[in-house]
Design brief:
Elements (H helix, E strand, L loop, with lengths): L9 H19 L11 H18 L10 H13 L1 H17 L4 H24 L1 H5 L1 H16 L1 H11 L13 H20 L8 H18 L7 H50 L12 H25 L2 H20 L2
Helix pairs in contact: 1-2, 1-7, 1-9, 2-3, 3-7, 4-5, 5-12, 9-10, 9-13, 10-11, 11-12
Length: 338
């Protein structure tokens, strides 16, 4: 598929890509519940995310659209994995902090971990039913992809038969032409979103270019074997994705840290009120791990500021102008490959 990718009809090329991504999800599927394979769920989610992104971006192309109900099931399955993966990532972050933390911070981390670890187990337990639906969904998506692959001949013969009058059925374009159209649309959207990124921007303004940047990466990934320009551009997009991803993680973690500190304070208060109700000596003091949570919050703020500076550096005008030119070059090469 690699050498002739751009010249293939879009429905046939997409069918091969869809099946390849389903293969990746299928390989990760049995590893989701294996404790010695912590990346099983991550790999499964990435395959589903890439699949959803490409189906969404190419859905207007002839023969590519997937039945809405199948797409809805794919979306529901992907979303069902969110809580398990998010809590798993947070737990891993807590464990990473221990080695570089003082006694006060370790106390807060330990308190938090005791409560988070059971949540991870519960989230994974809730995955059993949604994950069990994957083999059937896999089969239906492959059937839909292969059915779309077979439409090329029909579309082509229809075009030949109706060459003397207006076509009722539009022939599927080459994958290179279709990819260039999607690339240009996403590029314009992404550059517009990046222009809105600034210090003090709302979280949503920082979130949008992260998602659009992912979609651009997923679009470029099948083209890596077509030349160094695609490899270099996709690698550069990964740098953007990593920078925005780290900042996004910081913002999510800051909210979780605040929620954990509030929960700790509430638990301490309720415990002391219950103790006071039993005529035990009344003793008022700050929650045991308040200092630890405050230190963690300070460290988190410093890290967020560093990551925001990194993002702002990437969003400078000369950098974006250079990227826009590289996207234009990639689009031209996609069309030339057709």
């Amino acid at each position: 598929m690699a050498k002739a990718l751009g010249r293939r009809r879009v429905n046939a090329a997409m069918a091969s890509i869809i099946c390849a991504l389903l293969d990746e999800a299928r390989q990760a599927y049995p590893r989701i519940r294996q404790s010695h394979e912590p990346e099983g769920l991550h790999d499964f989610r990435v395959a589903l995310r890439r699949l959803r992104s490409l189906l969404k971006d190419f859905r207007s192309q002839p023969g590519v659209a997937v039945d809405k109900e199948l797409y809805r099931q794919l979306t529901a399955l992907a979303r069902a994995t969110n809580d398990a993966r998010d809590s798993e990532v947070m737990l891993a972050w807590l464990d990473e902090q221990v080695a570089t933390s003082g006694a006060a911070e370790r106390g807060a981390l330990g308190w938090w971990r005791e409560r988070l670890a059971p949540q991870v187990d519960r989230h994974y337990a809730r995955l059993d039913a949604p994950i069990a639906s994957f083999p059937m969904l896999d089969a239906k998506l492959r059937e839909a992809a292969n059915r779309a692959r077979g439409k090329r001949a029909a579309l082509g013969s229809s075009a030949k038969r109706k060459s003397t009058r207006k076509q009722d059925v539009r022939e599927a374009p080459r994958f290179g032409v279709a990819s260039a159209e999607v690339l240009e649309r996403l590029r314009d959207q992404w550059l517009s979103e990046l222009a809105q990124v600034r210090v003090g921007a709302e979280e949503e303004a920082l979130h949008r270019p992260r998602i659009t940047g992912k979609r651009l990466r997923y679009l470029l990934k099948p083209w890596r074997e077509q030349g160094s320009a695609f490899v270099e551009l996709e690698d550069e997009m990964k740098r953007f994705q990593d920078a925005f991803g780290d900042l996004h993680d910081d913002l999510v973690r800051a909210d979780a840290l605040t929620a954990a500190a509030l929960q700790h304070a509430e638990d301490e208060m309720l415990e002391r009120l219950a103790s006071a109700a039993t005529a035990a000596p009344v003793r008022a003091s700050a929650p045991r791990h308040l200092r630890g949570f405050m230190l963690l919050q300070g460290r988190q703020r410093e890290q967020t500021e560093a990551h925001l500076t990194r993002v702002m550096t990437l969003c400078r005008r000369p950098q974006l102008a250079r990227l826009a030119a590289r996207f234009e070059e990639a689009a031209q090469q996609m069309r030339a490959a057709s």
